[in-house]
Amino acid sequence: MSDEFTTPPPKRRRRVMPAGRALVVILVTLLVWAVLYAPELKRSSEAAPVGARRTVSLAILNPLVWVTDHTGLTAAANAASRAAGRDPNAEVGGVDLGVDALPSPVPGEQQEHHQKIVKDTDIREPTPDKQLRIAIVGDSLAQGVGFAADSVFKPFWAEVFKQGRISTGLARTDYFNWMTQMHTIVDRADPDLILVMIGENDNQALINPDGTVEQDIGTFDWAEQYQQRVQRFAKIATSEGGHVVWIGLPNVSDKSRWDFIQKQNAIFQSVADELPNVSYFDSWNTFAAPGGGYSAFYRDGTQVSEIRAPDGVHFNTDGYTLLTEKAAQLATKDFNLDPKTYAP
Amino acid sequence: MLFPTVDFALFFCLVFLGHWVLNHNARAWKAFMIAASYIFYGWWNPRYIFLLAGVTVVAQSSAIVVSRQEDQRRRMSAMAIGIAAVIGPLLFFKYYGFFAVNVTNGATALHAALAPPLIQVALPVGVSFYTFMAISYVVDVYRREFPVASWVDTTLYLSFFPHLVAGPIVRPGELVPQLDIQRDPRHLDIVGAGWLILGGLFKKVVIANYLAAAIVDPVFGEPARHGSLEILVAIVAYAVQIYCDFSGYTDIAIGVAKMLGFQFPQNFDRPYSAQSIQNFWRRWHMTLSRWLRDYLYIPLGGNRKGTVRTYENLMITMLLGGLWHGAAWHFVVWGGLHGLYLVVGHWKAALRARGVLATPPDTPWVHALQWLSTFALVCVGWVFFRADSVGTALSMLGRLVTFQSGPTSLVTVPVLLAIAIGMTVQFVPRSPGAAVRSAISQLHPVPMGIAAGFALFAITTLGPRGVAPFIYFQF
Question: If 0-12 CB within 10 Å is exposed, 13-18 middle and 19+ buried, where does residue A156 land?
Fold first, then answer.
């Protein structure tokens, strides 16, 4: 038997290459990825705050997407996205991580809603057969409230629908349209109580759902238009008899943002004052330091606890729990929410 | 700057180009790489670069002072002062809030007038990692295991961007000598590096991020609303998530360093295949384990001072290892549990050595049982590690062992598939796909890049939208 049959073939070794050729590999990799992913990148860029970075990104991505659209690559990439379980046409904003599914609409069946409201009313008393429905709505702060609400409200008496979506707000309806989403929540979940915490990301131009600029930031009209959006949102939330506790924005560690946030809070409070079944919870003053500044700590009697996250904006778990309990207490005070739904 | 972002991809292309263009000029190359590393770090918060620079100055000054002392006692004193100075910022940033709250509440309970100022300090990213590397440097100089490096080399050793924010914790002897070797630009293992980077991205983006969103965060967020089955699956899912998240980051870091011609030590070696806790710690976060062994456990006396002291040293090392992860009691409990596991493991080994306890037979069933019990103990530890408090962890474990009924909607086929993938990689050979990589390496650069581009597209499409930070960035 000859050697060629008895000796195993030599293993192929991994080939190395010069740095110049390696750079070609890297650049081709990124280029292919950018082309295939261009529609998604463009949608993300469109959702970014108006500014130089967004403008430059879109200047690069628009021609790229034109090419992918006309070569069928967009359709192929969308098909791949669908195969991976992702809707390529879904709104870019409002990633539904940690968002509870809403009850499905029953075709042809009219949802039984509460009586139309004309004045401040009480929240109905829950029964084991008919729990209260509580929706938590807003941005990442609302997401934290949502997780806390799961533990604060007792499952026996209350069903919680966590609807907080990170990076969203009322300014960018092109990124995530809270007006239509609030309609959906009211139609499908028919909440008795809605805790709203939103506005942390609204320090930017007001953009319409079609991407056109309604009002630039920093103008007098911005505040007026923003107030109209807040009002419209609150009206939708209460349109079928739900009660809203609008949680104002808390103090943040970055002093340069204080003026703007206080103006937002003034808008939230004035809307709450003028609309029935909407109450305002002043988280700014509730959690401020004794001198009125930012504090990450809260003194409850003799115990001090850290309640804010290190980013100086969000709360930690203890903080969200405290905030949710206080919002529930306000609902008891203003709307007669039965304390058994949340009291320890 | 996070690895899986467009910002980092563009940054890396420029660094890669500059790195190889300046490769032949050591001085210019080091200056360029330090600048790039500081830009990378300052991307999070430009103020952090002052902290990094400060730790570097303190570490280098300490090393110089230590190296100049001939008298052993003076040498040791200089080292101790140096370590205290290096670790001071870490202690302040990481533990001040924890300390202030506990002292204030303790003093109130005892009616004592003690109230340290309540200040919340944001933890700069990566500070735990480069502080440990700075300590390694000072101690290695003290032990005469490593000579004092130049200011430039020390600055680059501590700031080198591939390891900067979450390790691996590289020792001076492993990295500083590489800074002075001219890397060969003709022999770059781009396929090996790319395999690590894409594999790391897959682990992080597809497996870890998916499991976090699909089951881990909802269940750990509110365990009282979940039954035993969902809790059990969420605990195992978290074990897979943290492995894929952290080892994915490490793979990317090692791959990025490899593209620049650097070798980093391994940080993970299929840890969930371990059949004992001792073995687990030889496979999990290996560079932290050896750091704790060499700079804490052995200086405490290791196993050289009798059985009781060995157990004490194990407990101290693991409790401090737990506290290193964060200023919270649940991390202390996690460290304490692992300390306890290790003590029991040593005790059993001693009993076997004395013939008091029978050595288990060497059969597959026994190995399977050892594997299962080790994995279960590790998972119990992870519950304390992931939960936001000891109370939440105990509530989860309580619901688990009392067989609570509840919804099972989070236990889906994709969740089980992701867990299965994460567990399967624990039992495949250390370097899987060698033949595939060899075949890819034969390709021309353009088709190779096209294949990698498609792989990257698949990863980004399969993962959830958005960029979730790596778990270990918070430590």
Answer: exposed
